[in-house]
Amino acid sequence: MKSMKALFVVAALTVSSLAMAAGGGDRTFARMEQARKVSMEAYQLAQKQKAEAPVAETNAKSAEHANC
């Protein structure tokens, strides 16, 4: 009888853990995929802005001090 109770407890715990594990995996994966897409878009935008930024600008002050 004790072995039957132990088997029942183990079976109940196994079934409950499997049921809980299957519930949120798809939602979690979808959230991770969405976060990855958003971060990649932000990274690409930052790289694009970085490439378009001017390297150097000339102004009158730097021209005055060219021979210093």
From TrEMBL:
Keywords for the protein's UniProt record, in alphabetical order: Signal
Organism field: Pseudomonas cavernicola
Protein name listed in UniProt: Secreted protein
Signal peptide: 1-21
